[in-house]
From TrEMBL:
This is Site-specific DNA-methyltransferase. GO terms for biological process: DNA restriction-modification system; methylation. Residues 72-313 form the DNA methylase N-4/N-6 domain. One of its GO terms (cellular component) is cytoplasm. PROSITE patterns: N6_MTASE (PS00092). It comes from the Bacteria. InterPro entries: DNA_methylase_N4/N6, DNA_methylase_N6_adenine_CS, N4/N6-MTase_EcoPI_Mod-like, SAM-dependent_MTases_sf. Belongs to the N(4)/N(6)-methyltransferase family. Keywords: Methyltransferase, Restriction system, S-adenosyl-L-methionine, Transferase. PANTHER family: RNA METHYLASE-RELATED, TYPE III RESTRICTION-MODIFICATION ENZYME STYLTI MOD SUBUNIT. GO terms for molecular function: DNA binding; N-methyltransferase activity.
Length: 448
């Protein structure tokens, strides 16, 4: 049977699955996510959430909690593109030793889909059904894809959101990638823009439209402007957007393979949200939605199942001094690392100092031969070069890590010492290495 005939079956099956999911939630959904970390002011942190885990389970959790059900103003979805490829990121390790700055490739996610395009479309379809219910009545969704499957996903979205609620097919045109001698260069992605209803919020943005010959028209009632290029008018923005990808030397570059530029998200947020609105990205990736939303005064929810993605998002928003909470899906995962932290008491203060770091052999063996040799050498010569950032909670309550001190690496520089006052007698250190491995260590002291 051809795929076009399978689409009806996919939609019907996913609707049935979604009804079962809603019944499961109504009967008392068991929590699979728990709060592990809080950064910044607690009252502000509650408005921004980073979740590490499966995005469908996370959306089920949000529906069960009922705090954001029907309250998300904008969803930006940037799922895998069905590209049949594995995506790696270059992890930069800055060592003060003889190694200097080295790079290690790490797989961040796979987009291979051994069961074929039908399995991919089922994955997208069930999630779209849940996303629709999370949106406000005047909310909207942007689905970011490319030539591989955007035409099939539009059919799914027409069924789920309604053809009448389709707003725009936006073409993001860029310079990078896509060259071949067998076809025209593939230089664009496609964003499908739908409202939940006809009442979706939208504020048209303006762009320059240069006059012919760059000369003034002097039409009556038409306001004209001039810049170094020539004369222009301001018109409503078109649905073809020309902007560059994140360049190798860009200050916002994280190293994540499919990172999207903040300018792209700024344009979407300006058009479809206001300050204080709640935005969500359930395929968090490099964290561009969270970073941009925080910068623009929007509240945000983001999620990713990959540990390197979740760790990268956390670092990115920490660098922006954001207040947020971190939730993690409950699963039994053995720690792949160990960190030595020396805690000392001096008068009324405690000090914490990083001493060494170690990765388990079974984890190191997941890398290639050259990478394994490099990691072994770094562990023996400069093990702390593997730490990307760490934090200390001097007043750990036994449940949630609420650090007073956060130390983030800047190339070769990482502050390894900090101090503070403990009112609880419990101190917890949380370290995150360059590969996304997170480790908590708790120290208990008798209070005098």
């Amino acid at each position: 049977m051809s795929l076009i005939y399978k689409l009806t079956e996919i939609i019907d099956d996913c609707r049935t699955e979604y009804q079962q999911l809603k019944e499961e939630i109504a009967e008392g959904y068991i929590r699979t996510f728990k709060i592990e970390e809080v950064y910044g002011e607690s009252s502000l942190a509650e408005k921004n959430i980073l979740a590490w885990g499966d995005n469908l389970e996370w959306m089920k959790y949000l529906c069960f909690e009922n705090q954001v059900y029907g309250k998300v103003k904008l969803i930006y979805a940037d799922p895998p593109f069905f590209s049949k490829a594995d995506y790696k990121m270059q992890v930069k390790i800055h060592s003060k030793g003889a190694e200097g700055t080295v790079k290690v490739k790490q797989t961040v996610y796979t987009d291979t889909w051994n069961e074929g395009i039908e399995a991919y479309l089922r994955m997208i379809c069930i999630r779209l059904l849940v996303m629709r219910d999370l949106l406000t009545e005047d909310g909207c969704i942007f689905m970011h894809l490319d030539w591989h499957v955007v035409h099939y996903v539009k059919i799914l979205m027409d069924e789920i959101f309604g053809m009448d609620n389709f707003v725009n097919e936006i073409v993001w045109n860029y310079k990078s990638g896509g060259t071949s001698s067998r076809h025209f260069a593939r230089k664009h992605d496609t964003l499908l823009f739908y409202g939940k209803s006809s009442q979706y919020y939208f504020q048209a943005q303006k762009e320059k439209s240069y006059n012919r010959g760059f000369k003034p028209y002097r039409f009556k009632g038409v306001e004209e402007f001039q810049d170094e290029t020539g004369w222009y008018t301001l018109v409503n923005m078109k649905d073809v957007w020309q902007m560059d990808m994140v360049g190798r030397t860009s200050s916002e570059r994280t190293g994540y393979a499919t990172q999207k530029p903040e300018l792209l998200l700024e344009r979407i947020l300006k058009s479809c949200t206001k300050a204080g609105d709640l935005c969500a990205d359930f395929f968090g990736g490099s964290g561009t939605l969270a970073a941009t939303a925080d910068k623009m005064g929007r509240n945000w929810i983001t999620c990713d199942i990959g540990k390197s993605a979740a760790a990268g998002i956390k670092k990115r928003v920490l660098q922006k001094k954001a207040s947020f909470i971190v939730l993690r899906e409950s699963f039994n995962a053995e720690s792949m690392s160990d960190v030595q932290v020396q805690i000392k008491k001096q008068d009324e203060k405690y000090s914490a100092e990083l001493k060494s770091y170690h990765l388990k052999e079974e984890y190191i063996n997941t890398f290639g031969e050259k990478e394994r040799e490099l990691i072994h050498k770094l562990i023996h010569t400069d093990s702390l070069s593997l730490i990307d950032y760490w934090s200390i909670d001097f007043n750990f309550d036994g449940k949630i890590h609420k650090p007073q001190c956060v130390m983030i690496r800047e190339k070769e520089s990482l502050e390894k010492y900090t101090e503070g006052i403990s009112a609880t007698g419990m101190i917890q250190a949380c370290s995150t290495d360059v590969f996304g491995n997170v480790l908590y260590k708790t120290f208990k002291y008798a209070m005098e």
